[in-house]
Design a protein that fits this description.
By secondary structure, the chain is mostly helical. It has five helices and no strands. The longest helix is centred in the C-terminal third of the chain and has 34 residues. The protein is elongated, with a radius of gyration of 29 Å. The relative contact order is 0.08. The mean pLDDT is 83.
Length: 144
């Protein structure tokens, strides 16, 4: 492996590390509930950063078959793919409409669902008991 190529790999790995840190910082700011203007700017910054990381990932994938230092390259590639997954989940969550079934189901926790089911069952049982009582009262009146 030539020194020139090794220097290029080291330079790219350094840029990847910086890019990962930048992505993480921007993502943390986005999670801190910014104003809508800040959110738009941070969205653009996050997208720009993930695009840079994707370009580095492609470059790393091209180097992988020929290089001896596969561990460092694979680790950088995995880190980028992790950030890509985070971005994909963020993008999906941000595009979910406020009152869609998916968004509303996020708020309906299993505990809330089970509590609601218990409440409904209890009320159904009470209503059945009331119906039985009314029917028996009706039968008594008809006999009298």
């Amino acid at each position: 492996m030539s020194n020139k190529k090794q220097g290029e790999i080291d330079k790219t790995l350094k840029k990847v590390k910086e890019g990962l840190n930048e992505f993480t910082d921007i993502y943390k700011k986005l999670c801190a509930n910014p104003t809508s203007q800040q959110k738009d700017k941070l969205d653009c910054d996050l997208k720009r950063e993930i695009k840079k990381l994707q370009r580095f990932r492609e470059q790393i994938k091209n180097w992988l078959p020929n290089e001896r230092e596969k561990d460092k390259l694979n680790e950088a590639k995995r880190n980028i793919e992790t950030q890509m997954e985070i971005y994909k989940n963020y993008e999906k969550a941000s595009k979910t409409k406020a009152y869609s079934k998916e968004k509303l189901s996020q708020f309906a926790t299993p505990d809330a669902k089970s509590t609601t089911c218990i409440w409904v069952r209890k009320n159904i049982e009470e209503l059945k008991a009331q119906i039985d009582k009314l029917e028996s009262d009706n039968l008594k009146r008809k006999k009298d």
